[in-house]
Structure of Homoserine kinase:
Amino acid sequence: MAVYTDISEEELGAFLRDYPVGRLLSYKGIAEGTENSNYLLHTSEGAFILTLYERRVEAADLPFFLGLMEHLAKKGVSCPLPVRRQDGETIGTLAGRPAALITFLEGMWVRKPTPQHCREVGRALAELHAAAADFPMTRANALSPAQWLRLWELCKARADEVEPGLAREVEADLAAVDRWPQHLPVGVIHADLFPDNVFFLGGRVSGLIDFYFACNDLLAYDIATCLNAWCFEKDISYNVTKGAALLAGYQSVRPLKPGEVAALPLLARGSALRFMLTRLYDWLTIPDGALVNKRDPMEYVRRLRFHRRITGPGEYGVDLA
Amino acid sequence: MAVYTDISEEELGAFLRDYPVGRLLSYKGIAEGTENSNYLLHTSEGAFILTLYERRVEAADLPFFLGLMEHLAKKGVSCPLPVRRQDGETIGTLAGRPAALITFLEGMWVRKPTPQHCREVGRALAELHAAAADFPMTRANALSPAQWLRLWELCKARADEVEPGLAREVEADLAAVDRWPQHLPVGVIHADLFPDNVFFLGGRVSGLIDFYFACNDLLAYDIATCLNAWCFEKDISYNVTKGAALLAGYQSVRPLKPGEVAALPLLARGSALRFMLTRLYDWLTIPDGALVNKRDPMEYVRRLRFHRRITGPGEYGVDLA
């Protein structure tokens, strides 16, 4: 939620000279994305997003992220299209950082998703999975269960500062996800499809953005992340109507395998654990007042408590017929 | 440099229903302005800036600020035009705050002004003064010399925390500005025409923004503020070529009176003192890590040291012929 790097018109003009985007008219730092600096540009050819990649995004991963967006956009997924420079490259350098220019997508992210929004995002997620099926590059998930254990080693001594007893709770979750599913359908997943990464216009998805966690992993794990991100209310109660809508939207494009359905409770618990752990790590290590949004790990601890009590996938609203 | 208030599409849609701006396509919080929350909107009719007025801006002053912008825009000054609602009002309420919608101006602010930029901004300032001459409303300067003394009372006990000896220096400045000019031409001044409030396109001024310090005061005091804001280098050396260009640009529209020229050293010292004091107050009172840009008061202490040594207005580059 912050612009980290200021850029001058001269620097930006020199950078843009290689891109076929016409004359620069304005650029504004926007409060979007937590990891990078983003600018909204107006040029004589239209609107674009300029991203400067800051900490946490590995430059070596950029060809995967930008290649994926280009692949998806060309297959009709509503996601930004990276603009190619005259030399064919999509990644340049600006203010000493890797930088890319992508098309701007109109639309608004929804602060309070309805079941209809959940249905639409479920459908969009399945369409993304289908469109990515023949994307040739691969990227391992840098936040897979093995990494959760590493994060936990860095946090556990101080976890009870957040809430007494938290360390013991989390140990039980880590033990549970030790039985992580191994033989479910895999493919390219978005891995961070939270509401602020999905734009809507007139009730329809108009844009999926922020592919900087995308990787190859279990497709149903992506659904589990969406259930966590879209189907809990502010009081962290699970809204099964929203869950059912999201799952039905997804299955209208790609029906789930029985093994994926059966694994949903464990995948949802694992996904909640992953977001709890990264939030906990940030909570404990980022100084107060840094220009980074520190999100409360307790929101995900409370999701974990819900998932622990689940007795079967039907409780998420999945159609078992 | 921060968005303070998040708004939902529902709230924004309800707010916009009264404005003739077509269908909302997107809105992005932008990192612009230090006092308010600003959003860049795209609608089917074009681009607009939505401002939510936060702390420090008095709601009672908004009719003056917005009325002034409308007056100036209609006289051909490149400044935002407030959009009137169907009921004729320009000020509404959004997220519990006063809010206004203004036209978006293309252009970029210059991080490193050249003498040519200084000449253009001088000319634009004089045109603003001329166009505002028949604006019927008035607003007292809330940061005039009497208020400097009040701010100083709140800061002086801790001023030496910033630099030892600072309190004694500032007392001398306050004594000097006690002989503040009383009979120079007055009118509506911008009072905050820093580089980030002036947009350029193709070397010409394309927009003057942020009228939220505008008030009735000495016209030459506005010039003095521009000399401080535009004509010092990063090392706080005064660039007399830029000063001469700014003053010549101004005088190409409105030649200065001899009394204004003679008063320049004192006005420049007073203006530097005003910005030093508000920065010092923020520096000492705003907690580290608040979402507010705390600017270094020493940048203005060093300008004050320059102005104290001035022996005559010619040293600013004013044409005394």
Q: What stands out?
A: The radius of gyration of chain A is 20 Å.
